[in-house]
Write the structure tokens for this entry.
Amino acid sequence: MGLTSERDGEAADDGWLEVRREAKVLRSQATQRAKILGRLRSDHLDTMFTIVTAVEARAGRLILAIAGLAALATYLDTTILFVAFPDIGESFDDSSASTLSWVLNGYTIVFAALLVPAGKLADRLGHRFAFLVGSCAFTVASMACGVAPSVEFLIVARVMQGAGSAILVPASLALVMAAFPREKLPQVVAIWGAIGGASAALGPSLGALIVDAWGWRWAFFINLPIGVVTVAAGLRHLNESRDPNVRIPSFIGVVLIALAAGLVSYGVVESDTAGWVSTQTLVVLAAGMVLLGVFVAHQRQTDSPTLDLELFALGNFRWGNLGMFSYSMSFSAMFFGLILFLVSVWEWSILQAGLGVAPGAALAAALSPRFGRLAGQIGQRPLVFTGGVLFAIAGLYRVVFLTDDVDYAIDFAIPLAIAAFSIALVFPQTTSVAAQALPGNRVGVGGATTQAVRQFGGSLGVALTIAFLGTATGVDDLLTRFDRIWWFLVAGGVITALCALPLQTRPID
């Protein structure tokens, strides 16, 4: 019995060992199956993630293309109109230069006044909705401009264009930012921002070709196919995004700043006829400054400001925008003045004039990215200062050398190239230094404020150009009047350089 019990115990142990071995095998097989299933699930998820990422990236690029095309049309409109201005004047030869100036300034003043509030309105009502409304308004207004029977009708249509642009531009940027992940935003915003540089490079030559071939009306008609494409594509491919908590700015502020800018521009452009110290000029300019003061007081009191004046307490934002305002005035006076000089003094055709200034814009667009990288290494202050000095040198060069004797290579191209370096040094850097001074939650409104400052400066530059030229009585008188513009460029460059001195910038680590 003892022997039998011992054998039974050994058999039981052997059976238990067998069970454990089988269990171990089963566990091993189960683990292998789990690993295989895990790999399958992981591979499946990776594949799905890759597909989704590719689809989102394609959709983002499509949204960038749609928004960028619409923004390009609005930016091109300004540079093309500088080239088309002499041809518009010939069509409405019974209108004074001061009246015709509102074809340019009616657009820029309304665009600048509405830019910030329209951006906030788009945040509230929806960026897709605002983009489509702005695109439709800009396109319809372009058609109205092209068929304008009178200069008054043209000015009203241009005001409508400015309103459409103000709605369209901030909404287009918001749509682009919503379509890409956060880590891609710096690159994407840089691409969107480069549209302005591309329009500056393309505008003079494209405008000259259009006006020379078909006349100034086609400078507006060219916007129609762009508008149709962007609206059709927007309806199909854009996604809605909004922030219902955004507070809509007070309409009173919009009216006050637009009227103030309009009165100042009117006082300036009429000064040559009425006299700089005439009662009319002084009263109009004083009224404009009073309205500006009322605007500032209103902005400090209201809970829904049009421009966030608190941002100007930031040193770099304040000085960056002052530099932007000074340089924008000078840049518009230079660009507009050079076109008018080539047409009226050297008696070049519109095509020749547009192609004559195009190399400067193209060079500035090519240099801007390189100087942007340099700003990251040494900071923006030395670049803005150098750009201001170069702009003053280019203006002084024109005072000394630019006469009625045609010598494009020496008298025109050299200061044009110097100014191109200046443009690439100043515009991107004043924009970036102002933006970097902003808190993270104020970047959007601060960026729109800087663009509004640029537009207001540009409108005043156009007004001053018209006022400086006035009604010339001969070539010598015309050259003297153009010298006023070139000296103004010298002053603008110096002021811009001085605005750079208080900037506190450092290389970006």
Observations:
- Residues 1-7, 43-55 have pLDDT under 50 and may be disordered.
- The chain has 16 helices and no strands.
- Residues 310-509 form a domain with the Growth Hormone; Chain: A; fold (CATH 1.20.1250.20).
- The first helix runs from residue 2 to 91.
